[in-house]
Amino acid sequence: PQSIYLSDYRPPAYRVTHTELSFDLDPMATRVKARLHVERHPERAAGEPLELDGEQLTLKSIAIDGQPLGDDEYVLTERGLRVDGVPERFLLDTDVEIAPKDNTALEGLYQSGGMFCTQCEAEGFRRITFYPDRPDVMATFSTTVVGRSDREPVLLSNGNPVERGELPDGRHFVTWEDPHPKPCYLFALVAGDLQKVEDRFTTAGGREVTLQIWVEEENLGKTDHAMASLKRAMRWDEETYGREYDLDLFMIVAVNDFNMGAMENKGLNIFNSAAVLTHPHTATDAAFQRVEGIVAHEYFHNWSGNRVTCRDWFQLSLKEGFTVFRDQSFSADTNSAPVKRIEEVSFFRTAQFAEDAGPTAHPVRPDHYIEIGNFYTLTIYEKGAEIVRMLRNLVGWEAFRRGSDLYFSRFDGQAVTIEDFVACMAEASGQDLDQFMRWYSQAGTPEIDAHGEYDYANGAYRLVLRQRTPATPGQPDKQPLHIPIRLGLVGTKSGRDLTLTLDGEYLGQDGVIHLREEEQEFLFTDVEEAPVPSLARGFSAPIKLHFPYSREDLAFLQTHDSDGFNRWDAGQRLALLALDDLIAAHRNGVEKVMDSRVVEAFRSLLNTATDDKAVLAEMLTLPSEAYIAEQQPLVDVDAIHAARTFVKQSLAIALRDDFLRVYHENVSEAPYAPEPEQIGARSLKNVALSYLVSIEDEEGVELARRQFEADHNMTDVRQALTLLVHSSRDDLADPALRAFGEKWAHDPLVMDQWFSIQVSRPQADALERVKFLMDHPAFSLTNPNKVRALIGAFAQNRINFHRLDGEGYKLLADVVIELNRLNPEIASRLVTPLTRWRRFDEPRQELMKGELERIRAEKLSPNVYEVIEKALA
Ligand code: B3K
Ligand code: ZN
């Protein structure tokens, strides 16, 4: 496989202005007829050959302007089709055959259960028909779908239905027209025996939009939340970004077999059923929130992605980073904003930091790739969103909104670049964003070493910041970035934010300083008392910030910082310091002693009234093993697990009565609603319960058992079941698991949870359980959700995945080898934990590397090949 380079970009030789498609559906032999209205691109010379992408297509016929081409008038290659000597402007007709039923990669047209559906982004359309499969070719589409009236009563595609009718032999057809020019990656088709739930939305401009969610019959009761979320998102985008919907129909379809969360096809979003279906008894609070976020994300793409799209796939973050930022802002507005930010950042710092520090690290705008499917990453999405957030903060919301308006109006209907986007922001704000652009081209997480001192005599505080970005593959030397640091100086006497005066300029009590040099000094004057600095408030930049805080400083910030995010972060830092000592103690075989400052900090949290219970729940949550590992120079899996367990149990023993009280204070019989207040109370109660069960406190275990039995909602049931299964009380866990498994055998999304809970348990039998469950009738290697629920969840089970006998690694590698053949996109994602082998001790390194080499010896898909080569480089 060959790399593709951003620097090689050229406009296409030919573009397509209008695309007519007709599908005659059949599981093993679907016929696809395409008529493309083709013309030479004005920037390209005349006489160049027409080159179309096409994979796994059987060509039946081809004609230009109605004249069939003979075998010697075109060339079929491994990648597609070439025709020499085409006119300046012509109609191209092709007729191909494809086999959706055999399509286990779930790209292109495939069957999920009995239904046909498509996934074209990034390069799946080339598995449907011969086409210039690149985002800078934008055409209007007219699509006719023919199916069997009994098996496929519903036939959907993009845009509006314009004609339908019966055909002989029990077949029927529907024709769809999409008036908005789009790249083929936004094409969609769905056909099957589906039912719909319908609603309406009137846009600010008065357009009456019909909203439909299409599901299999048994899921009809699970669409309310997605529909409500959709309407909220539509209103929010009007009010916040001035963006209105532009068709009379908006459809969402739920499918069970789907590689990702969802896909923003124009007018016909296709969703992984896990990202759309909810019910209080089957979905947790987290799932409700995820559905809301994904529904909004896909809807927001209608502008940031569809109306204005990417020129090439190197620009992927143009649509993804911006759209993630938009969905994050939406969720923050609809839920508890501080807790949303805490969740985002804690995930980001665990998973994106690890990616940015590993062998597959890449810039937010990569400059080369082998397989674009490997670049739907946390870096492109989440770090891209952090960059957009920094831009918003740098230029301020009003200029950002003007920049956004400018971007949408200037580039409507076009395929553009990240420069185009940032240029709009620079133009609207008058700011120079040249240095800022380095965030897009430079991989790796910048580290800031900070120190400060208070000058009592002059009432000044001197803060020194030094930045460095570690080398990443292909980028040994890094340039300084423009890093906005939002900060406060918290007075140690008053406990309040002091006013910030920098170089005579008044910044308020919460200001932003700009680090642009490798090292910079900031001298704050008129600082009345000695402060503790609260740095990078709200995670104002995607950086690692080191400051030599004492534990007293951190305990102080945890109670006094006016920034909720940094209060939480101070607690995390304090816990990490204690964990560090315990990790060292474990390694050295020394007795572990709990840091009483952490206990006191928790005691005070548990005894201080709060109106945001969700934030309190986060503050009572210890850093995860994965996050702790991120902080270590070399990961000691067992020591981390032992230290974290020790801290958790010590807190539970010391504060047992407080946890018990908090539990009881937050039990509620009120009917379930996925609303912030209820969610906060439930998280708090469930965190308290997790402490109690961690020491197998009799009363705590009994509460968990009762919470499971009460069967009030899935959040509570799942937490209770998880705690029991992860404790050593198999006498309670086994019957509960059995009951749950039997009760929900018919519901694949609940069975996913049932799988995950079991294989993430810390007990030594987790691996055996994985093997056993792989033979369970509800498991299937061809269903990505099942693979994630069972194999993916096991790979996150740190002590068991990293077993010293290497059996965890071997199991993962076996599955990767199998999936490499069936579904390369999923295979290359699944292999990620093995690629991080350099982070572990010598014996584990050898074992992990051994498995990577075993995978490398296979005949690999480009997806897996690219990842393995990077991992072993
Ligand atoms: N744009 C899709 C991702 C599709 C990736 C396929 N390899 C989902 C999203 O980001 O909204
Ligand atoms: Zn997206």
From TrEMBL:
Its cofactor is Zn(2+). Residues 226-439 form the Peptidase M1 membrane alanine aminopeptidase domain. Gene3D superfamilies: 2.60.40.1840, 3.30.2010.30, Neutral Protease Domain 2, Peptidase M1, alanyl aminopeptidase, C-terminal domain, tricorn interacting facor f3 domain. SUPFAM superfamilies: Leukotriene A4 hydrolase N-terminal domain, Metalloproteases ('zincins'), catalytic domain. GO terms for biological process: proteolysis. Keywords: Aminopeptidase, Hydrolase, Metal-binding, Metalloprotease, Protease, Zinc. Residues 552-873 form the Peptidase M1 alanyl aminopeptidase C-terminal domain. The keyword Protease applies. The keyword Protease applies. Residues 444-547 form the Peptidase M1 alanyl aminopeptidase Ig-like fold domain. It catalyses: Release of an N-terminal amino acid, Xaa-|-Yaa- from a peptide, amide or arylamide. Xaa is preferably Ala, but may be most amino acids including Pro (slow action). When a terminal hydrophobic residue is followed by a prolyl residue, the two may be released as an intact Xaa-Pro dipeptide. GO terms for molecular function: alanyl aminopeptidase activity; metallopeptidase activity; zinc ion binding. CDD domains: M1_APN. InterPro entries: Aminopeptidase_N-like_N (IPR045357), Aminopeptidase_N-like_N_sf (IPR042097), PepN_Ig-like_sf (IPR038438), Peptidase_M1 (IPR001930), Peptidase_M1_dom (IPR014782), Peptidase_M1_pepN (IPR012779), Peptidase_M1_pepN_C (IPR024601), Peptidase_M1_pepN_C_sf (IPR037144). Residues 103-186 form the Aminopeptidase N-like N-terminal domain. Its EC number is 3.4.11.2. Aminopeptidase N is involved in the degradation of intracellular peptides generated by protein breakdown during normal growth as well as in response to nutrient starvation. PANTHER family: PUROMYCIN-SENSITIVE AMINOPEPTIDASE. Belongs to the peptidase M1 family. This is Aminopeptidase N.
